[in-house]
Amino acid sequence: MSLLTITFALLFYLATAILIGGVAYKIYIYSSTPVPLKIPTMPAPLTTTGVVMRMGREVVLFESLFKSNKWIWIFGWMFHFSLLLVLLRHLRYFTQPVWSWVVLIQPFGRYAAFAMVAGLLGLWARRFLVDRVRYISTPSDHLMLALLLGIGLSGVAMSFVSHVDIIDVKMFMLGLMMFHWQELPPEPILLVHLSLVALLMIVFPISKLLHAPGVFFSPTRNQVDDSREVRHVADWAVHFDQ
Amino acid sequence: MAASKFEVPELKGYTVIPLLQKGASANIKSFLANEKIQEDLGFPGELVEDWHDKAIEKMGELLGKYRGLRVFMDACVHCGACTDKCHYYLGTRDPKNMPVARQDLMRQVYRRYFTFAGKYFPKLVGARDLTREVLDDWYSYYYQCSECRRCSVYCPYGIDTAEVTMAGREILDSVGMGQKYTNEILGKVHRIGNNLGLPGPALTDTLEGLEEDIEADTGFAVKLPIDIKGAEVLLITPSADFFSEPHVESLIGYAKVFHAAGISWTLSSMSSEAGNFGMFIGNYEQMHKVALRIRQAALELGVKRIVVGECGHAWRVAYSFWNTLIGVGAGADDPFAKMLQKQLDPRYPQPAHICEVTYDLLQQGAIKMDKEANDHRIITFHDSCNVARGSNMGGIPGGQFILPREIIKSVANHFYDMAPETVFEGTFCCGGGGGLLTDDLMELRVKGAMPRMNALKSVVDAHQVNFMATICAICKAQFTKVLPYYEFEMSMVGGVHQLVSSAIRLDPNK
After folding, report:
1. Do A132 and B20 touch (CB under 8 A)?
2. Which positions in chain A touch B154 (Cβ < 8 Å)?
3. In principle, which of A119, B91, B391, B431 could form an S-S bond with A78, CB 3.0–4.6 Å?
């Protein structure tokens, strides 16, 4: 077993643990923090079904962003939807036999990488071109885009420029999952891709990527408009009822 | 036009997103509350010595009590969707008035003290120590936000800057930096029962005077009853309705509606205020204490229904928070709330907005209107932010937009809406909400009104609109003051029930 394989195997175990543990911890914090008042952004749905639909539109279509700014919406939605396709396509490296629907989306997933890169470039361009967005951008905002772009470009390079023996990569991944390690092919571009992915997994729970779980806990989006029909009191506020 | 020490924006009829200008409104600061005002509310009289530690401690407390704040601090990705949505940014060009930048004033500190990345890599994630400079920035810019929630409509995660502003003000109050205007008013409510500090006898006098005026005007003995035990309806209305113009015209309108429909009603001298500035400073305890007077009045007078007059933030508090705070509503299973809910008539929504009452009566045909009485008016409607984005009416989706408009169309023949992106949930704040309706913030108020004034100008030019109806006491007071800066008549603004008042038939035989 090469040192490289051992390093990457341990790196991925660590990254997975941080990602899952970190996000689970954040979700625990969010869900255990009380919501003392009804603050849905109105007009809000009058039923729970309505709230599920609202959240669905928000998460799938980015409804509020669409209302807000068409450019951010186009680039943002293009990036996220492509990322989803790309991620689903990557399931083929973690399953044996490969599920038939994953086979089906394979060609779409391959080309979605370009849309993903284009979306990221659009979002990054705004950070330079629009004075308001330039003003609010921090170094980490730029680095996050660089990181995602690095992952996208190294992925595209492996698919379309310098092919990597995908069977070996898959053996490595399956080996990690079965705790029966297999050698990782020492291809530089692959190592770059995997390192950046591991880095992304590690920073996920301590960065703005928390918007992904966060949106589901946003009281302005997930509350039902029923304040007159149902009394809603947080535990810490109960003592006000003498 | 009123003389001004600052440049009044020029109206184009539509609002252009300006290039930012750093520090453009840094000099705009509302007066600090003095020791007496602060201590009356149980806050430190002046900036405490260990303000840094106290502020961070308070922030930690709030992060543990409010899920919204916790999520909003983490979720922002700096996408920029909100950057052009705040009327104060559009009017002042100060980048710290962009919603995200206003939130970042707190988020930077949150990251520094409460997150791994900010503790170890502050520069990277834009984290900052809480310095005196930052604290002063908080005071300036958290009192340049009207908590109108327009940004929350457009944020992909629903981040509500109002919640951040409220937390900011709560922290500032807890270290001794309160705002004079809001906190002084809160003291008055606690001492006297209303924001204006109008004592019971003065109130009774005013109401008697109004009754005489109405009778002289119409020939009908329309009453404005106060402290009547056993009345059907308790009306809770902003105290401005008792003697500010044009507010009082709407009060007369409510009285005429109750008169024409034959509903017995009463005001309360002990609880003569719908407004609840406790919300503005984000302080649950203050908000609760102010609201308790309404519960007490309802119990003492034995009323069956509680109706709220034309007041934006009061209606948000009433609609969204009263059930939580004082049990005015339905669906409770605890003794505190059940005590009141048993008394209230379950056939009516509790609380109800006066527009819900009037709209229902119109639907039933219980009141009749002569629309021609408003023919000299060409009307538009300004959705007040707290009604639009913080409440509902009629229990139907978007009822808060539909009901007032339907009432206007039932009492008048000429109605035109303003541009779609400036009404309904996208409505622009009047510029004076959220505790900013004070003369020391006049520059901010005038500049913040600009997007609304542009939309108004557009319908004035296109349809000769001469009346902007609204259902908020703060909007009415703000526009009365600000319209002249933009060369509009101050009498252009008025209440929906002012229109009702003109058109309603008082003769039961007709």
Report:
1. yes
2. 64-65, 67-69
3. A119
Given its phi and psi angles, is residue B394 left (phi above 0), alpha (psi -120 to 50 degrees) or beta? Answer: left
User: Model pTM?
Assistant: 0.97
Instruction: Quote the pLDDT of residue B1.
Output: 46
β partners of residue B342: none
Start-end of H helices in chain A: 3-32, 48-56, 63-68, 70-90, 100-129, 131-136, 139-160, 166-178, 188-203, 211-214, 219-222
CB-based contact, B1 to chain A, within 8 Å: no
A137-169 pLDDT tens trace = 999 999 999 999 999 999 999 999 988 999 999
- What pairing do the DSSP bridges indicate for beta strands B305-308 and B352-353? parallel
Q: B67-75 and B51-65 are packed helices; what angle lies between their axes, rounded to 10 degrees?
A: 100
Listed by number, the residues of chain B in 126-145 with a beta carbon closer than 8 Å to a beta carbon of chain A are 126
Cα separation, B475 vs B216, whole angstroms = 29
The mean pLDDT of chain B is: 97
pLDDT band, very low/low/confident/very high, at B510 (cuts 50, 70, 90) = low
Strand-strand pairing, B379-381 and B352-353: unpaired
* CB of B285 less than 8 A from some CB of A: yes
Do B158 and A207 count as a contact with CB atoms less than 8 A apart? no
Amino acid at A191: L
Four-CA torsion B389, B395, B396, B400, nearest 10 degrees? -40
CA–CA gap between residue B326 and residue B318 (Å, rounded): 10
DSSP E strand stretches across B330-473: 352-353, 379-381, 467-470
Is residue A195 predicted with pLDDT exceeding 60? Answer: yes
Closest Cα in chain A to B65? A34
User: Shortest Cα distance from B279 to chain A (angstroms)?
Assistant: 11
B400/A231 Cβ within 8 A: no
pLDDT in tens, B425-481: 999 999 999 999 999 999 999 999 999 999 999 999 999 999 999 999 999 999 999
**What average pLDDT does this structure show over B388-414?**
98
All domains of chain A, ordered by start, with CATH? 3-228 (1.20.950.20)
**pLDDT value at residue A75:** 98
- 3 state DSSP class of B432: coil
**Interchain CB contact of B77 with A (< 8 Å):** yes
Shortest alpha-carbon distance between residue A152 and chain B (Å): 19
Report chain B residues whose CB lies below 8 A from the CB of A41. 149, 152-153, 158, 160, 389, 425
Any chain A CB within 8 A of the CB of B104?
A: yes
For A173-192, how does the pLDDT look when each residue is reduced to its tens digit (9 = 90+)? 999 999 999 999 999 999 99
Does residue A58 contact residue A215 with C-beta atoms inside 8 Å? yes
Is the CB of residue A117 less than 8 Å from the CB of residue A152?
A: yes
